[in-house]
Amino acid sequence: SDTLVINGKTVAINGEKNLLELIRKQGIELPTFCYHSELSVYGACRMCLVEEENMGIIATCSTAPQPGMNIKTHSPRVQRIRKMALELLLANHDRDCTTCSRNGNCKLQDLAQRFGIDEVRFGTREEVLPVDNSSPSIVRNPNKCILCGDCVRTCQEIQGIGVLDFANRGSKSIVAPAFNKDLIEVDCVACGQCVAVCPTGALTIKSDISRVWEAINDPAKTVVVQIAPAVRVAIGEEFGMEPGEIQMGQLVAALKRLGFDKVFDTSFAADLTVMEETAEFIERFKEGKKLPQFTSCCPAWVKYAEEYAQDFLDNLSSCKSPQQMFGSVAKRFYSQDLGIDPEDMVVVSIMPCTAKKFEAQRPEFITDGVPDVDVVITTQEVASMIKKSGLVFSELGIESLDMPLGFSTGAGVIFGVTGGVSEAVLRNAYEKITGDNLDDVEFKEVRGFDGIKEAEVELDGKTVRLAVVHGLSNVGDLIKAIKKGEKEYDLIEVMACPGGCIGGGGQPTPNNTEVREKRAQGMYNCDKLSALHKSQENPMVNDFYRRWFGEENSDVTHKHLHTSYEE
Ligand code: HC1
Ligand code: SF4
């Protein structure tokens, strides 16, 4: 077979798409800022350079392995150039590390340390650019940007949106929305995928931690917290555990120590969403109107539809997302059991998602000045709260969720992975339409990470045509195909982030395909470990119907659990 030489050792070429991959396979850690296996190759950061006998200095990310090459990855010349490239980046970078939210979790800081940079021999840039704080979800600090372009390519290639781009030339180069506008003024959907790939503090999650402390420290407030499905299989990563490990009991224990009055589960509300969304679907399906029905639980997708797919706004399910249903149920109904006014309850959400911050602020979800959800923090933010409080996560032990809003079935939990909403709805629709008991609850055809999954399910002699799509550029492709009449579906599940919520922009990093696959497995394990697997069997949800709501899609649920989206 074809071989080449790396640092004096002969190695085989096995179809690697570039030298970088081949070198990393040998256990040699070549640094990069701008290389991501899921994005196109940009080749700008100059960190992955090596010396080849005949070709001289080459960038490994953009060079294919060729037989006979003789490569040195850490020759004195390569080391010198790499160090210089780093110093140039540092010269142009706001080096106020101690107050940066990425302190201790920054690639630039990490490499500066690894390469022993003890001085920067180039003049430091003096101009200070304004920080863009306009988005409820994301902070953009151009003074921390190293122009790797990871965010630009993620927004363009993975999300198909492209609101970020390079502007200006030479030393004035920056990455910014068009015309250097603020993020809030452009059609950013707040998915946070750009934040997840940013190696420095140039794009960060807008922190709402101080608002949580304020609520906890206010004795007049009852502070209720909900934990989103995808958080439980990722929070452990912040404390050195493997992706996909279920850490719900530890998280509950931590939240109680932090001072929350009640710790609940968004999956309870996901079960409730399944009830409402299935009833809505069956009605549309029977009457053959406003099909396909799109899911509406992903706020980045809803924003995308409002900006880029207005023709389909009528096709969005009218169900509020589980996050918002939870807030509504807690404040309008559960508060009555506690004997308190909605104004005296604060609902905090822990979400894998940056767009949920934006969703909670939408006027649709504020009634008489009282929002369903008051504060949203991400998985990363809650981990930071736990660390700052001095709690040792791994030693907390396990505590149980509170009732009734802490009870969920496996169907409500798998919402956190692409395909999960569809599977949960199918488990309900099957029994509602056929009147039979569903024995095998696993709908494997909607699982997995293909960008667009299709399935046909026979229900009482009628075929339901499903599509499951994640990653907004795939959504764009699907919508084009539907508009052209090439594709026809009855039900479409959309999640903006690759992998669904498990890959959300608020999750721990790294947040790549390998990590997401493990988190997905964790979600299905949660389902397996649950006592119940069908939302319609959730006794707490059924109790709410009995006491307050009546039927699915009743006047009461329409008032409190549904909404509408207009152009
Ligand atoms: Fe999600 Fe959802 S699954 S949107 O991905 O429908 O964020 O986890 O909480 O609301 O339940 C996110 C996750 C989450 C909602 C639910
Ligand atoms: Fe693009 Fe999403 Fe980042 Fe907005 S949040 S700039 S849509 S990647």
From TrEMBL:
<dbReference type="GO" id="GO:0008137">
    <property type="term" value="F:NADH dehydrogenase (ubiquinone) activity"/>
</dbReference>
<dbReference type="GO" id="GO:0042773">
    <property type="term" value="P:ATP synthesis coupled electron transport"/>
</dbReference>
<keyword id="KW-0479">Metal-binding</keyword>
<keyword id="KW-0560">Oxidoreductase</keyword>
<dbReference type="InterPro" id="IPR050340">
    <property type="entry name" value="Cytosolic_Fe-S_CAF"/>
</dbReference>
<dbReference type="InterPro" id="IPR036249">
    <property type="entry name" value="Thioredoxin-like_sf"/>
</dbReference>
<dbReference type="GO" id="GO:0051537">
    <property type="term" value="F:2 iron, 2 sulfur cluster binding"/>
</dbReference>
<protein>
    <submittedName>
        <fullName>NADH dehydrogenase I subunit G</fullName>
        <ecNumber>1.6.5.3</ecNumber>
    </submittedName>
</protein>
<keyword id="KW-0411">Iron-sulfur</keyword>
<keyword id="KW-0004">4Fe-4S</keyword>
<keyword id="KW-0408">Iron</keyword>
<dbReference type="Pfam" id="PF02256">
    <property type="entry name" value="Fe_hyd_SSU"/>
</dbReference>
<dbReference type="InterPro" id="IPR019574">
    <property type="entry name" value="NADH_UbQ_OxRdtase_Gsu_4Fe4S-bd"/>
</dbReference>
<feature type="domain" description="4Fe-4S ferredoxin-type">
    <location>
        <begin position="136"/>
        <end position="166"/>
    </location>
</feature>
<dbReference type="InterPro" id="IPR003149">
    <property type="entry name" value="Fe_hydrogenase_ssu"/>
</dbReference>
<dbReference type="InterPro" id="IPR001041">
    <property type="entry name" value="2Fe-2S_ferredoxin-type"/>
</dbReference>
<feature type="domain" description="4Fe-4S ferredoxin-type">
    <location>
        <begin position="177"/>
        <end position="208"/>
    </location>
</feature>
<dbReference type="InterPro" id="IPR036991">
    <property type="entry name" value="Fe_hydrogenase_ssu_sf"/>
</dbReference>
<comment type="similarity">
    <text>Belongs to the complex I 75 kDa subunit family.</text>
</comment>
<keyword id="KW-1278">Translocase</keyword>
<dbReference type="InterPro" id="IPR036010">
    <property type="entry name" value="2Fe-2S_ferredoxin-like_sf"/>
</dbReference>
<dbReference type="Pfam" id="PF12838">
    <property type="entry name" value="Fer4_7"/>
</dbReference>
<dbReference type="InterPro" id="IPR000283">
    <property type="entry name" value="NADH_UbQ_OxRdtase_75kDa_su_CS"/>
</dbReference>
<keyword id="KW-0520">NAD</keyword>
<dbReference type="Pfam" id="PF01257">
    <property type="entry name" value="2Fe-2S_thioredx"/>
</dbReference>
<dbReference type="GO" id="GO:0016020">
    <property type="term" value="C:membrane"/>
</dbReference>
<dbReference type="InterPro" id="IPR004108">
    <property type="entry name" value="Fe_hydrogenase_lsu_C"/>
</dbReference>
<dbReference type="Pfam" id="PF13510">
    <property type="entry name" value="Fer2_4"/>
</dbReference>
<dbReference type="GO" id="GO:0005506">
    <property type="term" value="F:iron ion binding"/>
</dbReference>
<feature type="domain" description="2Fe-2S ferredoxin-type">
    <location>
        <begin position="1"/>
        <end position="77"/>
    </location>
</feature>
<keyword id="KW-0472">Membrane</keyword>
<keyword id="KW-0677">Repeat</keyword>
<dbReference type="InterPro" id="IPR009016">
    <property type="entry name" value="Fe_hydrogenase"/>
</dbReference>
<dbReference type="Pfam" id="PF02906">
    <property type="entry name" value="Fe_hyd_lg_C"/>
</dbReference>
<dbReference type="InterPro" id="IPR013352">
    <property type="entry name" value="Fe_hydrogenase_subset"/>
</dbReference>
<dbReference type="GO" id="GO:0008901">
    <property type="term" value="F:ferredoxin hydrogenase activity"/>
</dbReference>
<dbReference type="GO" id="GO:0051539">
    <property type="term" value="F:4 iron, 4 sulfur cluster binding"/>
</dbReference>
<dbReference type="InterPro" id="IPR049830">
    <property type="entry name" value="HndD"/>
</dbReference>
<dbReference type="Pfam" id="PF10588">
    <property type="entry name" value="NADH-G_4Fe-4S_3"/>
</dbReference>
<feature type="domain" description="4Fe-4S His(Cys)3-ligated-type">
    <location>
        <begin position="77"/>
        <end position="116"/>
    </location>
</feature>
<dbReference type="InterPro" id="IPR017896">
    <property type="entry name" value="4Fe4S_Fe-S-bd"/>
</dbReference>
<dbReference type="InterPro" id="IPR017900">
    <property type="entry name" value="4Fe4S_Fe_S_CS"/>
</dbReference>
